[in-house]
Amino acid sequence: MAKATLGIIGGSGLYDLPGLQDVRELDVATPWGEPSAPLKEGRIGATRIVFLPRHGIGHRFSPSDIDYRANIDALKRAGVTDLVSLSACGSYREDLPPGMFVLVDQFIDRTFRRESSFFGAGCVAHVAFSDPVAPNLVARLAKAAAEENLAHIVGGTYVCMEGPQFSTRAESSAYKAMGASVVGMTNMPEAKLAREAEISYATVAMVTDYDAWRPQEAGVEVSSILEVMRANVAAAGRLVARLAAEFPEEREACPVGSDRALDYAILTPPDFRDPALMAKLEAIASRVL
Ligand SMILES: CSC[C@H]1O[C@H](OP(=O)(O)O)[C@H](O)[C@@H]1O
Ligand SMILES: Nc1ncnc2[nH]cnc12
Hints:
The protein is an alpha/beta fold. The protein contains seven helices and eleven strands.
């Protein structure tokens, strides 16, 4: 197995990773476009870390405008093997109050105006995605959260809405009825693209609010989210530090196949592949091409 590199994608409120040592900026070019920001490479203890703020420095990209393909391709080029998304979210469950960290194990994708695959005309691929997160990475996050005494729960379904507006009360009730535990606007197609790139992915969904399904409550507003978000961000820093301190040197085999997702996924035989697309896939699919 290859050397492990831990990637961290910082969401709302997380534009830097305090505690990162020997930091170097990496300007990584990709064939898909520009990543949200230059990558920050460094280490915590012996663990190599690459950090990327998904909304850019100064929170310039809305969830629909983030170039998710450029972000994942850049992280792949920087050697990331395991990727943790730190994300703010709304909650659909009374037992998941603001401040709770949900280590989600399922997603529902409700986005509709984002590029959601590296593949397409000229090279078609279908990766498995029934189990979208890497259980070994989740287990490491759960252990780190327990050691830091952070309120957390293992398992939960994250519904990804398009946004950028928050949900109506009817939408909020519908997502809850669908079985979603939390809602956010960013983890799709990020998680799908990470799978195509054979990067193990896990999400720490950090609850900031109860969305809009509770009839007795005022709806969601960013102003009320910000204070909880600040506390969540501080706790996320401790979580990452602990995770990194105990991270393995070598990449672990992923029980759900994140590290070999492309083994049988590509359906287009070599003679029928589009050379231009194949060139773009150089970083993502080089292991199997
Ligand atoms: C600050 S509330 C809305 C905003 O926060 C979440 O983003 P991220 O996952 O990057 O933390 C949510 O998805 C919205 O984009
Ligand atoms: N209620 C909510 N809906 C969508 N994204 C969110 N991010 C934080 N809270 C949210």
